[in-house]
C-alpha cells in the first residue's frame, strides 16, 4: 500500500475509509454496530468483510449461526445485491499462515502446534498475537484479484476502548524490536496502513457517564498515537420527551382522566416520580452529548431498539449509518 493513497467514496456512502476499526466500552453494542456498518457499506452491490479478533464469536451469536472458522464465509446479503462476509481471526491459524507465506514451512509449520510452539511464540512475544490479528485485517483490506480489490471495505470488530490503543500500536512496537526480516516488513506495513487515510477508528458509546469518559480518553490516546479517528457513534439513543419541562401532578391527573385511566393518589404520585426521573436522566444525557460534541468529531446517533438487536434491528441500524451526514 502506498502511504499517499487516499480512499475514494464513489458510491457516496459517507464512509470513505477502507478499513473501519470499531471500538467502544464493553456493553455499548460495539459488535452490533460493527455488523450494522458492514451491512450498510455492502448496500448497492458492494462486498464487505466483517472481522472479529477477540475469540468471543460475537458475530456468530449476533446472527444466530455456528461459530465462525478461520475462513471467510458468507454472512448475510445486503440491499441492492451486496454481500457481507465474516471472518473470526485465530492467532494460531494466522501464525501458521504467516509461517507458510513467508518461510514456506507448510506441514512443518503445522507440526509445531503439536509441540506447543505456537502458544510459546505468542506467550514470549505477546505483541506478536496482535500483529497477526491486525495483519490479517490489513491483508484483507489490500487484497486484489486481477487488479481489483476483493472487498470494498473491511470492518474490524476491535478490542474495547480500554485496550484499543495498545492493540493498534503494537505493530509499531514490534517493528522497532524486529530489525530485519518479514516480521519487520509485516509490522511496518500494518502500522502504515493503520495510520493512513485508508483507516478510520470509530468509537461506540452510550449516553452514560462511564462510556462517555472512556470515549474521551480513548480518542485522546488514539490521537496521540497518530491513528485517524473517524466517527463517534452514540448507540441506544431515545427520542426527545414530549415536553422539556417537569409535568405537574395536576397535568398528569387531567391526562389520566382524558384517557379514562385511574387517577388515585398512588397512581398519580408514581407517574409523577417516573416523569421527574426521566427528565433528570434526559438532562444528564444532554450534558454528556455536549461533552461529545465538544470533541469536534463527526457524530451519529443510533436509535434504541425496543425489541433488541435482531436481523430487523441490524437493518434499522445499517440504514441509520448509511444515511449519516
TrEMBL record:
Pfam families (UniProt xref): ArsA_ATPase (PF02374)
UniProt-listed InterPro entries: ArsA/GET3_ATPase-like, ATPase_ArsA/GET3, P-loop_NTPase
GO MF assignments: ATP binding; ATP hydrolysis activity
Organism: Micromonospora costi
Coiled-coil parts of chain: none
ArsA/GET3 Anion-transporting ATPase-like domain span: 20-176
UniProt protein name: ATPase
